[in-house]
Amino acid sequence: MRLVEVTDANRAAVTAVRVHPAQERFVASVEKSFLDAEQEPEGNPWYRAVYAADVPVGFVMLSWNVTPGPGLLGPFYLWRLLIGAEHQRHGYGTAILDEVVALLRAEGATELLTSYVPGEGTPGPFYLGYGFVPTGEVEDGEVVLRLDLSSRP
């Protein structure tokens, strides 16, 4: 698994990555992620395609080193994480987070925030299993979680 910059050459293949239809109400598409990144530059979006060999299997997007404020969690916020339906349950989600944690530690970050919409089929259990803990906050109806970067090997 490797994180790859999105370019004109791979954008269509990366945009074609889709989660399982039952997950679409919890995880926005890659195309919506690009739109969000364009419309919310104050979030300092950083994103990468996730490849296994030469095949795009997922996508990750963070707010990178932002000043927290109204509607803006940070300084480091996992804005989007998705794995294509046919590539789920192969460890890619954990591998992506491991890579992100290593990058953030190298940047001097001490925590990573994320959030999820509650409901059946939500990614909440995945995040909790990885080590995120609820902060007690709810932002726009989403449960906010925090990962202490020193808690991961």
TrEMBL record:
Q: Tell me the superkingdom of the source.
A: Bacteria
Q: Does the keyword Transferase apply?
A: yes
Q: Which CDD domains match?
A: NAT_SF (cd04301)
Q: Which keywords, in A-to-Z order, does the entry hold?
A: Transferase
Question: Where does the N-acetyltransferase domain start and stop, copy by copy?
Answer: 1-150
Would the keyword Membrane turn up in this protein's UniProt record?
no
Q: Where are the transmembrane segments?
A: none
Full protein name: GNAT family N-acetyltransferase
Give the source lineage, highest ranks first.
Bacteria, Bacillati, Actinomycetota, Actinomycetes, Pseudonocardiales
